[in-house]
Amino acid sequence: MDVKPSRGRYFGGTFPPDTVTFAGAIALKVATGVDTREALVAGFSEIGAEMSSYFPEPAMDGADVERLVDLVIRDHNAQVTSASRDAIALLDAFHAMSIRGIVYSFAEAGDTQTALEDIGDSARELVEHGVGVRGYCFAHAVDTDELIMNGQLALGYGIFAESGSMPEEIGRDIAQVLREHGLTVRPHLSAEQRLIVGPMVYELPYEGMDIPAPDEEL
Length: 218
Hints:
This protein has a five-stranded mixed β-sheet with strand order 1-2-3-5-4, with helices on both faces. The protein folds into two domains: 71 residues, no CATH class; 113 residues, no CATH class. It starts with 21 loop residues before the first helix and ends in a 21-residue tail after the last strand. Helix 2 crosses helix 3 and helix 4 crosses helix 7. The N terminus and C terminus are likely disordered. By secondary structure, the chain is α+β, with helices and mostly antiparallel strands. Helices cover 45% and strands 11% of the residues. The protein is built from seven helices and five strands; from the N terminus they run H-H-H-H-E-H-E-H-E-H-E-E. This is DUF6891 domain-containing protein. Pfam families: DUF6891.
C-alpha cells in the first residue's frame, strides 16, 4: 500500500522546496535546518557561478546568491513559525540513540561515504565522554531532501565491529527508539540495512542565522 506523502507549510511560500531549480534547492536546505547561513551562502555561491551545470537559471554572483538565501530564509520562517511534532520527535529520538550508544549523522553529508566519516568523528567524541558505542544510523543529503519533499526519511544503519552487536539488533533498537517517540517505522523493502521513517511532517523555523533586516539591504 502506498504511503501518502506529508508536506510542510514551506510549500505554501514564494520559494517552495524543489529539486529542479536553484531557489528550490536552497529552500530544501533551509527546510532541513542543519546548515548555517554562512555555509548556505558559500556552498550555493559555488553552484551559482557554474549555474548552467546544475540548474536552468542564469549564473549568479556571490552577492546575488547571498540576497536569495536571505529571501528564502525569510520566506521559510514566514510559513513555519513553530516546530512540528514530528520534527521534535525525530531530533529527540536521535538524542536518545546517542545515549544508548548509537551514533547518528543527519543531513551532514552528501553521500554514504562522507556520512560514515562523520559518524566516525562523532563516535570518537562519544567514546572520549565515556559512552560505549555499539552502532550507528545516518541520513545523508539525498535522504533528507526526500524527507522534505515526500515526508519519508530513509535511515541507513550498521555496527561497530568491536562492539559485538549484530546489525539486526541495532536496527531493532533504532526502530524501537523512533517508535517510542511516536514515529512510524517500517523496514526497507530491499536487502539494505535501512529503515523508513514516516509519513511525517518535518518543520523547523530556520534559526542561528544573521541576516540583515529588509531596510538594511543594498
